[in-house]
Protein: Methyltransferase type 11
Amino acid sequence: MAEQASRDWWEELLQVYEFAHYRQYADELTRREVDFLIDALGLRGVETILDLACGGGRHSLALAARGWTVVGLDAAASVLAHARAAAAEQGLRVEFVIGDMRDLPYHERFDVVLLMNSSLGFFDDATNQAVLHGIARALVPGGKVLIQCLNPYQIERYLRDFRSGWYPIGSGFVLREARFDPRRATLEIDYRYIDASRGIDVTHPGDQIRLYGFPELTAMLRAAGLRPLSVFGDAALPPVPFTEESVWQVVIATRDRTVRMEAEDADHAHR
Structure:
């Protein structure tokens, strides 16, 4: 199958059917993460939120169920079809948009942008920086972005449970093989799905995720006109401090008016 169709198929498998297979765990994880988001961002119920790289929309749906106005954006049309169906089934109003995080069409529309589950880093450094510039433009002055990503300094701890192994999804099994290239600070992940009952044996095109340490990440945020406010060691309550043992880093930054003007001046100069 063509690469984009293959990626969409895999996104549907991993973002929809995997969470459906492990429904109880997924629902509890989502509840805990949304509780954290509300607390860490000081959400009051009136904010408009962009859930960037929303996948199957689990955060979008949970936030909408609690009263927030949410837009979920993802590149995989098949995954968003499931998200829209779930919203309709639950009677929720969520705008799910097919789009590319590298080319966000929004200007000062959102109070909050979420980029969860290590969704920053799928491109080269210049493009990842451009993604942050797009997020800054999408935020209203005073708006906040929350980015959850892996801490490269603790990648070995993360890979202890994630490096390699088979696990079931539906009537088949997924083989995951992950490794970290320290020369490029990049997490590389391959998948293979086998369902003997349906004669399926499919290999994933492969993911490469650039991991940024906290100094790199905060420098990139500042370059985009986003002022770092706080960092946590996990998306969980009670709040977990970011320490030398943290597998995750969850960074919150804001776009204020002074920084916004500087970022826009730099952006225009770069064009």
Observations:
- The longest strand covers residues 139-150.
- The domain at 3-152+212-270 is CATH 3.40.50.150 (Rossmann fold).
